[in-house]
Amino acid sequence: MQKEIGSISDFLKQGNFNFRIFDMGRRVTRISNQLFEKIENQQEQYPYPFQQSAWLAILFWDKNKQAESIIWFLKFPIDELGYLQLSSRDAFIQQLIDQLGSSLQEKQHNKPVSDSLKESPFAFKPKQDRLAIFHSKASKELGQSPSQYYAHTQEYLRGDIGYEQWKFLGLQGIADVVARLDEAANESILAKAIDSLPDTPLEIICNMLEHSEPKRNLSEALSHRLTTELEGKQSTLLIAALTRALSNGRPESLRLSLWKTLLESEVASEIEILAAISGRAWRDLDNRNLLKQFITALAGCNQEQFNILLIDLMAIPTLREPILAVMRQPDRTKELDEKIGRFFQLLKG
User: Fold this and answer.
1) What is the three-class DSSP state of 19?
2) Cα separations in angstroms, 242 against 75, 210, 223, 302
């Protein structure tokens, strides 16, 4: 007798699927199947809430048909305590049951599972660059070959065809290189190219690197370019892109030093820079001194920007209490004090 489907994990298990779960919000990163099951059972808070939601990619395939994998992009709200709102998840499960029938055997023969999401209120379409890096990570995860643009991107990064020829690059090829930094000396090749790259291709590469874990060599190259841009008072957007690219880089000490430098610089109150730190380097904000420096800099933005970034950060389970502690400290600037007052007025409604 078939068990009741109580969760997405149940659906995938009972359907005899292999599956992988990815967070698509703060950065494209794997969530283990075991952790996802605990999240669905409310045994664990959602680790990467973004804009008070869980942004998920669910990759699954019949155990005998890996080449025919299916992808769902789903967005569910997170509650005030950081847990997945089960009412939305349950509504999605009910949608599956309504559209596919209670017998999972029908899914392959009568009604393709992929069709079930066309009208779903829980589905979303990722941005092009995020979709590219997801596909690159997924193909690597499944042991598949990179795209046809991979080799050309490698040639470009080696400087074989001239760095000014970036318009001929394929976005998927860049994503493939970043997803495979540990293969074919890709990380070393990219590190050597960073200082020579024009702004536009560098920004595109940085948008991909924010979903990776650059090691010291590449992190130092990115750090050098960021410092150069900062000293030359160049594009704030490029500085923000470099910040995101370094957000998960190694070692931690290099990152923390850079964030301190940024928050003491002339771009400290630029919303693009602060959003890059809060959106991608949120783990580093568990450093109390850095968190205080960040919130003080954030007070230089307008009230709406201040509110949006703080509400987003406070949804992260590990940051809520530290943020409240910083906001209670008596040595606040007048500007910060006023922003905090209006912030709590908003929360009280």
Assistant:
1) strand
2) 27, 9, 8, 24
Nearest to 314 by CA among 38, 27, 42, 81: 81
How far, CA to CA in Å, does 239 sit from each of 45, 178, 249, 295?
Answer: 32, 19, 15, 19
Task: Answer yes or no: is 41 within a domain.
Answer: yes
| Cα separation, 270 vs 189, whole angstroms | 32
Contact assessment for residue 129 and residue 204, using Cβ atoms and an 8 Å cutoff: yes
Nearest to 273 by CA among 289, 260, 287: 260
- Between CA 17 and CA 25, with CA 20 as vertex, the angle to 5 degrees is 140
Number of domains in the chain: 2
Q: Tell which of 117, 150, 180 closes a domain.
A: 117
Contact 102, 2 (CB under 8 A): yes
43-98: pLDDT as tens digits: 999 999 999 999 999 999 987 777 778 899 999 999 988 999 999 999 999 988 88
Give Cα 289 to chain centroid, integer Å: 24
Q: How many CB atoms lie within 10 A of CB 119?
A: 9
Is residue 313 assigned to a domain? yes
Residue 36 lies in a domain: yes
In 3-state terms, what secondary structure has residue 73? strand
Q: Whole domain around residue 309: which residue ranges?
A: 242-255+264-349
Other C-beta atoms closer than 10 Å to the C-beta of 139 total 19
**pTM, entire model:** 0.91
Which pLDDT score is estimated for 209? 98
Q: Which of 117, 152, 175 is the last residue of a domain?
A: 117
Q: How far apart are CA 274 and CA 326, in angstroms?
A: 17
Name the DSSP letter for residue 4.
P
Q: Are 24 and 132 in contact (CB under 8 A)?
A: no
Domain membership of residue 125 (yes or no) is no
